[in-house]
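Is this the right way to post structure tokens for a design question? Let me know if I should format differently. Anyway, here goes:
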């Protein structure tokens, strides 16, 4: 007869596994045979998630999971100021655990954001999944294929259906390691994070770049779903933090079970019903391996960032009132994702350049802070340059602009480049972008003064931009966006050019009247 301790252990394991399976079964977003990418950071929650998937795919499992998993690990050592030796030791531990798990894995260095394509910031429409009966039909079809004699051997050889106790084989073609980042990439990443003043903005920037990398890996290798290990406690803290950061309009996407902002790749959070205490108990009792890596806020004081302050506040309140986390978490389940004045199935309007959420722009309601900023950016006209500045080149080379752009032939190079990027961001991302360190150019062009952005050849362009600004001293104090990854700057420039072209040809477009539309339908 089992002892009381063993009975409690078995009961807790069954309860823990049931919560994980119930979340997936209730939402029915992951279809049989679908490729799912597990975003593993090495921490307790994501490690427990990987272990739940591993046990769910074992032959001994009562109700086996039917998707094909893969694991991605992002090496963030450069952003956390780790030495090359410490990063190498961490990667050795990471590879050992990934080889034990036996799933296809991908290790990506954070420096690879400087080589991402523009497609990372594009929205690709998701293929329709059909009615509610489509999931049941897919399950029945999968079970028929699984029990077919001709498919038996093939099913056993698929990745992710291996016995957890069996040793993992050699790396396959699907297992890719991070290419050693170049010194220039590491320096560029360090310069990017050094240019951010506050720890709050650094954490938000790190989260954005991490999401872009995971999205790129998922699209490159054919994964249609991404699993993250966000626990109930972490999501409750994230909800309160997002409210403080001005991201209240996107709480349903940031904390919900599914996040469809990217279209073809959906982010799901199957650990959202587990608290941090439950995760810690499970990992301790059943020996779930994890890797400790210092984060960007490691050893930071409580008031160093909004994230740290909100985390300390929530955990302290949870210690005194045990229902705090569950109350905040249940509130997030009631949030609706439908944007304002948009019907289902219709692609929303413009999206944020960084977080990819739909811009909640309401120019008519300028009473809000976001509406006031948007109205100000849209109504601001480029300053009239002085006569002596017109002789200086105003357009940067290689962009493809005409020489007469300052006279209305295209987007003007003397306009503030920050304004064109800021107007493509949501309110929360705008606030974070303002925390870039300001660079002071006291006397551009004088001997012994700092060189202008872009080198000496761009000195004339920078000087003409300063002369054309309403306040030259304000222009000299503007933060520099040169440290941002190239794909972000290129996408911002491309969106701006498309908007300008669309505005120029708007008067030549012929729209169908209501009578013609009804005639065409009949």
């Amino acid at each position: 007869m089992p002892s009381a301790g063993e009975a409690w252990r078995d009961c807790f394991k069954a309860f823990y596994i049931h919560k994980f399976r119930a979340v997936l079964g209730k939402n029915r977003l992951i279809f049989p045979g679908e490729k799912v990418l597990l975003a593993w950071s090495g921490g307790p929650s994501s490690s427990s998630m990987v272990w739940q998937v591993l046990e769910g795919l074992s032959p001994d499992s009562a109700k086996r999971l039917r998707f094909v998993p893969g694991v991605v690990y992002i090496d963030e050592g450069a952003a956390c100021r780790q030495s090359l030796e410490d990063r190498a030791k961490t990667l050795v531990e990471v590879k050992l655990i990934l080889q034990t798990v036996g799933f296809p894995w991908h290790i990506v260095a954070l420096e690879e954001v400087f080589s991402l394509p523009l497609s990372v910031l594009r929205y690709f429409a998701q293929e329709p999944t059909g009615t509610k009966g489509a999931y049941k039909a897919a399950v029945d079809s999968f079970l028929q294929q699984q029990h077919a004699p001709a498919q038996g051997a093939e099913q056993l050889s698929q990745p992710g259906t291996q016995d957890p106790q069996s040793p993992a084989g050699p790396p396959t073609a699907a297992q890719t390691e991070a290419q050693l980042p170049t010194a220039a990439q590491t320096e560029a990443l360090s310069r990017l994070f050094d240019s951010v003043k506050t720890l709050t903005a650094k954490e938000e920037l790190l989260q954005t770049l991490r999401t872009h990398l995971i999205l790129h890996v998922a699209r490159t290798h054919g994964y249609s779903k991404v699993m993250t290990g966000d626990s109930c406690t972490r999501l409750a803290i994230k909800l309160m933090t997002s409210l403080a950061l001005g991201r209240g309009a996107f709480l349903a996407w940031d904390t919900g079970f599914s996040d469809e902002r990217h279209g073809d790749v959906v982010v799901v959070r199957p650990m959202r019903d587990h608290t941090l205490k439950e995760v810690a108990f499970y990992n301790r009792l059943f020996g779930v391996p994890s890797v400790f890596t210092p984060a960007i806020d490691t050893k930071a004081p409580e008031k160093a960032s909004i994230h740290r302050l909100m985390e300390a506040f929530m955990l302290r309140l949870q210690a005194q009132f045990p229902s705090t986390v569950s109350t905040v978490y249940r509130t997030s389940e009631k949030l609706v994702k439908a944007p304002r004045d948009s019907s289902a199935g219709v692609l929303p309007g413009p999206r944020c350049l960084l977080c990819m959420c739909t811009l909640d722009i309401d120019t008519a309601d300028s009473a809000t802070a976001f509406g006031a900023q948007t109205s100000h950016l849209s109504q601001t006209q480029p300053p009239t340059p002085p006569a002596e500045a017109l002789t200086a080149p105003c357009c940067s080379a290689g962009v493809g602009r005409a020489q007469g752009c300052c006279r209305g032939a295209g987007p003007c190079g003397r306009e503030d480049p920050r304004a064109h990027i800021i107007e493509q961001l949501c309110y929360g991302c705008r606030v974070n972008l303002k925390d870039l360190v300001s660079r002071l150019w006291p006397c551009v062009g004088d001997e012994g003064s700092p060189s202008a952005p872009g080198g000496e050849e761009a000195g004339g362009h920078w000087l003409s931009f300063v002369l054309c600004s309403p306040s030259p001293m304000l222009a000299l104090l503007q933060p520099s966006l040169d440290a941002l990854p190239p794909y972000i700057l290129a996408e911002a420039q491309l969106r701006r050019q498309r908007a300008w072209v669309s505005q120029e040809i708007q008067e030549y477009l012929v729209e169908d009247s209501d009578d013609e539309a009804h005639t065409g339908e009949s």
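Format looks fine. Someone answered above. Worth noting: Strands lie at 35-39, 68-75, 105-109, 225-227, 258-259, 266-268. DSSP finds 19 helices and six strands in the chain.
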